[in-house]
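Field reference: sequence -> structure
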Amino acid sequence: MTERAAVILAAGQGTRMKSPLPKVLHKVGGRTMLDRAIDAVQAAGCEKVVVVVGAHETGAQVRAAAVARLGENAIAVQDPPLGTGHAVLAAQGALAAFHGDVLVTNADCPLLEGRDLEPLFELRQKGATLALLGFEPADPALYGRLIRGADGHVIRIVEARDASQEERNVRACYSGMMVADRDRLFGWLAKVGNDNAKGEYYLTEVVAHAVAEEAQVRAVFAPETAVMGADSQAQLSAAEAIFQQRRRVHFLGAGVAMPAPDTVHFSWDTQIEPGATVEQFVVFAPGVKVATGAVIRAFSHLEGASVAEGALVGPYARLRPGAEIGPQAHIGNFVEVKKVKVGEGAKANHLTYLGDGTVGAGANIGAGTIFCNYDGFDKHETHVGEGAFIGSNTALVAPIRVGAGAYTGSGSVITRDVEPDALALERAVQAEKPGWAARFRAAKMAKKFKAKG
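Structure field:
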């Protein structure tokens, strides 16, 4: 099979986002648009990926993100910005040693997937010299039209502002994505001029040069949602809504019970096994796995956490990164768990913070318990043994271990390790003054009546 590479255009400043964060680093489904673009081209078999970034301030942030994902050799810089054709030319050096097909795509199409790009390579395999990705939008007003001849081959792309009325009636539009052999692509780009109002070099002009060489130019079509851009906060929100609906349909079809699916928010990598239940208004941030039989109750937030078979989480629970909830364990209302492994059948049902450590199988964590894990500089661990019982309103000051089967008295501040099966108490001696309350009330009432008299 012909080798595949991709050039991802990410040099724009994205001013319509009106955000200090570069456009392509905004997220859909908890994943940046840049990462989603890389995911898509890699899923389409592109082993070599080049990201074209700008030399402006926001370009440095995009560059850093691309380097973290792909390495320094995957970066090309467009400086100054002189149009889409010029941006692709900036990647020529990075692809100097590459021989094969090059896909050109955009970093701001967050719903694009590998399956949407694969047909472009299939067109190449069938003999097309230049393969274009088209779509038929509900409102084609602003898009360039794909003008095709009687044989179906593309003969030109016409920008909306330059189109005749007959051409405006064409519904086939160009997405900005194409595939061609590396040498041919850069050969056509070398011929592209900038004799236009903006003085820019447009990628679409390669079609005219390909046609002039009598090369076969063909188009394949993707759904409008696949190639929709996200240039503004409104468009980003629209893309998020489509992504979320797709994930809801997926999980419902996979056997996940959701009584109110429209209220559940998923991440790009959420994993939920069939037979799990997700109640209303649950948010899955990145890195969550939920096993069969588990129940995630309403208004819970999970991130970087795993929930084992038959476990119960929520309502109003928060699982932070590193939380591992064991089989049949219970994490109840207003309980927060961070970097703690909770053993099988253990329970923390109310108003508790568990941070850094472990809770053994069958242990019971009383309401108001706190793992005091931070001393202002470092994090320390708390380990609660199997079958231990932590009384309500206990503060466990880490580093500390509570042995298997041990108890702590309610209201205690435990600062030293507790032996297995022991009872640990830390309280002031309770003092009682008989009759004090009655005398107090009588004095108050006498003062009140005297004031009125």
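Note: The longest helix spans residues 233-253.
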